[in-house]
Amino acid sequence: MPKIKEIKAREILDSRGNPTIETKITLDNDILGIASVPSGASLGKYEALELRDADMNRYFGLGVLKAVGNVNQVIGPKLLGFDPTKQQEIDRLMIDLDGTENKSKLGANSLLSVSLAVASAASKSQKLPLYRYLNSLYGETLPTTIEKMPTPTFNIINGGKHGAGNLDFQEFHVVPATTKPYHEALRIGEEIYQKLKEVLIHRNAIRSVGDEGGFAPNLFTNLDTLEIILEAVKLTPHVFGRDVFLGLDIAASNFKKADGYQIKDKPNSLSANEFIEYLINLNKEYQLLILEDPLDEDDWEDWARLTQLLGKGTLIVGDDLLATNLLRLKQAIDKRLCTTILIKPNQAGTLSETLEVVKTARAGGFKVIVSHRSGETNDTFIADFAVAVGSDYVKFGAPARGERVAKYNRLLEIEEELNLK
Ligand code: PGA
Ligand code: ZN
């Protein structure tokens, strides 16, 4: 069995132009595993810690040289000679080395870059496609042909912390019907995206794109935005309510203030009850298939009430609420706070913990959406990961911008390899 010979991390840039960490692992048979980690802008309070230098002389404090040093000087030397297929053992060792609840000593970014690079090296060493190797770590066996690829959900308008600053809701999605083969779902998303561009030009709205590749118009209320998306859908052959549906990441923690939920569609702040009422009416009008972080991450009773009211027909998704955190997920399952988990490996900090969270979610009857971050690299690990764990959906942004498209294209490659076309 090959062993880890060298671990080397360095600082690179992510899609927002901010520093992030990339780690290369070389085995003694000269096989190379490489991984880089993404970074969020609308961070959930309960995520594992992303270690930044806070040295204002470099990258305005956002450098990651401390995280790089932690890999090269603290973690790396301890892992030399390890068998890279011992993923759990390696992740456990790193978690123990860190020793904190939220990975604040060594940084979740340093741990994750090593964790993913180890898996990448192990899969290559076993001559397996990454999705197959990850599937074996997940503890299940993919049949030689799997029935279903994950369904993509496309963030085609970016608001909140990812947009031009005027839209309260963070993400406006179109979601192709789950019955569509992956390559067709991708085409549906892309064709709507192109028509949306035309509609925005026609209305003389700004059509520059936001962090996740969706347009970032600065003219509309949340409701106007949904109407404009439907207008774009009508310009395609795809039928709303049959071929394609709508989804929202409200990211409500970002605009909830002490006196309630403040949105531009309403003159006054809304209480939790009023905001729930507003969301129910929104759903009546627009048949939302996906509703992510509809309420503040700490308002659990409100979440439970909303899930009871809307959870049958709409996926109520916990992102900031759950933060890919096992403990929070268990509580959410217990209290029926939501029906679906958003999986972001860098919220957890290691591959093994992320796999454990997916397994627990499945056992609790939850649906799964594997997600990118708003700051990404061209690493396509999460595309393989999504196939490996049989994720219901993937959320990789708009069908535009290289770092988003890289992941959608990797899924095309896997679909072809698995002969699902
Ligand atoms: P983030 O946004 O990566 O900036 O956290 C993505 C999301 O909220 O789903
Ligand atoms: Zn979110």
Q: Can I get a quick summary?
A:
By secondary structure, the chain is an alpha/beta fold. Helices cover 39% and strands 16% of the residues.
**SSE order, as H and E?**
EEEHHHHEEEHHEEEHEHEHEHHEHEH
Rg over CA atoms, rounded to whole Å, is 21 Å
Number of helical elements: 13
The level of helicity is 25-40%
Tell me about the biggest sheet? 9 strands, mixed
Strand content: 15-25%
Oligomer: single chain
Gap between N and C termini, in Å?
36 Å
Poorly predicted spans:
none
User: Could you say which small molecules are bound to this protein?
Assistant: 2-phosphoglycolic acid, zinc ion
Structural class: alpha/beta
- Strand order across the biggest sheet? 4-14-13-12-11-10-7-6-5
General form: globular
E-strand count: 14
Which whole number gives the mean pLDDT?
Answer: 96
Question: How are the SSEs ordered, and which strands pair?
Answer:
Blueprint: E1 4-13, E2 19-27, E3 32-36, H1 65-79, H2 87-98, H3 108-125, H4 130-138, E4 151-152, E5 154-158, E6 171-176, H5 182-202, H6 222-234, E7 244-249, E8 256-257, E9 260-261, H7 272-286, E10 288-292, H8 300-310, E11 315-318, H9 326-335, E12 340-343, H10 345-348, H11 351-363, E13 367-371, H12 381-388, E14 393-395, H13 402-417
Parallel strand pairs: 4-14, 7-10, 10-11, 11-12, 12-13, 13-14
Antiparallel strand pairs: 1-2, 2-3, 5-6, 6-7, 8-9
The structure holds 2-phosphoglycolic acid (PGA) and zinc ion.
